[in-house]
Design goal:
Elements: H1 2-25, H2 31-44, E1 48-49, E2 54-55, H3 56-59, H4 75-88, E3 92-93, E4 98-99, H5 100-103, H6 119-132, E5 136-137, E6 142-143, H7 144-147
Antiparallel strand pairs: 1-2, 3-4, 5-6
Length: 157
């Protein structure tokens, strides 16, 4: 009995001291700071609502601005990209959003299209995909060779 009481007292004392140590690490926050943080959380939708534990901006994302992500580009990189866009006429102007190289194509060099596959190559690729069941069907997007593996040759590993 005395052991149990001593253990309980030691446990309670340890919990009390640990709680005070944790509280001592936290810096004091003023009432105004707490109110400002709450107002910002409400404005950004970072307040948990309902029993699901989701934030309001997760439930209703169309009501809140998208979260800004930090850019990986330096100021010089952005300036270089802008200079290249101006040189190539890839800058949109006016309310219609027309690019300069579309308005005045004679002032800018023509864009070279990236080399792609020929029609014959695409047709051969499609025939192989059909033969191997490598295309997706239905709303679930499951491949045919997964639905009926016995009808298609097994993949060589």
């Amino acid at each position: 009995m005395i052991r149990t009481q001593a253990s309980a007292i030691a446990l309670a004392l340890g919990t009390l001291l640990a709680g005070q140590a944790i509280a001592a690490d936290a810096t004091p926050v003023t009432r105004a700071q707490v109110q400002a943080e709450l107002a910002e959380a409400i404005r950004n939708g970072d307040v948990i609502v309902g029993q699901a534990g989701l934030k309001e901006n997760e439930l209703l994302p169309h009501l809140y601005p998208a979260q800004q992500k930090a850019s990986q580009l330096t100021r010089e990189d952005v300036n270089e990209e802008l200079a290249a866009a101006v040189r190539n006429g890839d800058v949109r102007i006016g309310q219609a959003g027309v690019k300069l190289n579309e308005l005045n194509p004679e002032r800018y060099a023509a864009h070279q299209a990236a080399p792609g596959a020929t029609r014959a190559e695409v047709q051969a690729e499609l025939a192989e995909a059909v033969r191997n069941g490598e295309f997706r069907v239905g709303q679930a997007g499951v491949k045919l060779n997964q639905l009926a593996p016995q009808q298609y040759p097994s993949a060589i590993s």
